[in-house]
Write a structure and sequence with these properties.
GO molecular function: 3-dehydroquinate dehydratase activity
Number of strands: 11
Shape: globular
Enzyme class: lyase
Distance between the termini: 16 Å
Strand content: 15-25%
Subunit structure: Homodimer.
Protein name: 3-dehydroquinate dehydratase
Structural class: alpha/beta
Pfam families: DHquinase_I (PF01487)
Length: 252
């Protein structure tokens, strides 16, 4: 599996790294959550800015990013604005989506930015190019809340993210059966064996997909998402039991 170093964290090596999302709505609650997460057994933080009440106010957005950076210290920070078609809170037009991500990148406060690859090649390339020009890593992403695509489709989308120069390729699906979970894990293993130029992150959402969040080291998923308080997607589990399970399943 490919690997990258984000601050002192190596993603794509050893056990999956635990990322905790912040989904609070106010500045005060966001920073309070970050302080609490900092004390937990996790590796990185995702700020889901689409939950923020004042996401469209550039001054408020910048202030929160600065406070998050100060609060988190050396812990890597992933900026994500998840749009409604992919399970987020807000529907943005392309210009707004690009502008928000550029503002986060230019703040100098984030380490990684999530880019929804299916927003279109032009949009994705603009954000990827801006991120890389500022030394920010890109997490290419796709979220399917309607079901689980075929193995070949999952692999195709993850490879497309790599082709578009994403530093991490991420895909989440909604399983309808145990076999759907196997399809995702088989696709993940195929990426590890055949297309390992970047770390890959995959998950099957909901209770049915829980195994996919725990077996990343074996099948090739480099990050798993745990909760400290409210989660950002169905099937996420609290950080402390998640960390213990990953320790028990460690290959070394």
């Amino acid at each position: 599996m490919g690997k990258i170093q984000v601050r002192s964290l190596i993603i794509g090596e050893g056990q999956p790294k635990i990322c905790v999302p912040i989904v609070e709505k106010t500045e005060e609650d966001i920073i309070r959550a970050a302080s609490k997460i900092r004390e937990q057994n996790c590796h990185m933080v995702e700020w889901r800015a689409d939950y923020f009440d004042h996401y469209s106010d550039s001054v408020s957005l910048s202030r929160v990013l600065e406070k998050l950076r100060e609060t988190l210290g050396d812990m890597p920070l992933l900026f994500t604005f998840r749009t409604r078609p992919e399970g987020g809170c807000v529907a943005l037009d392309l210009e707004e989506y690009i502008s928000l991500n550029h503002a986060a990148i230019q703040s100098g406060c984030i380490d990684l930015v999530d880019v929804e690859i299916l927003r279109g090649d032009d949009t994705a390339f603009l954000v990827v190019e801006e991120a890389h020009s500022k030394g920010v890593y890109v997490v290419g992403s796709n979220h399917d809340f309607t079901g689980t695509p075929k193995k070949e489709t999952i692999i195709m989308r993850l490879c497309r993210m790599q082709e578009m120069e994403a530093d991490i390729a991420k895909m989440a699906v909604m399983p309808k059966s145990p076999r759907d979970v196997l399809v995702l894990m088989d696709a993940t293993l195929a990426m590890k064996e055949l297309h390992d130029s970047t770390p890959v992150v995959t998950m099957a959402m909901g209770k049915l997909g829980l195994a996919s969040r725990l077996t990343g080291e074996l099948f090739g998923s480099a990050i798993t998402f745990g909760t400290v308080g409210e989660g950002s997607a169905p099937g996420q589990i609290p950080v402390e039991p998640l960390a213990e399970i990953l320790r028990q399943l460690a290959l070394e």
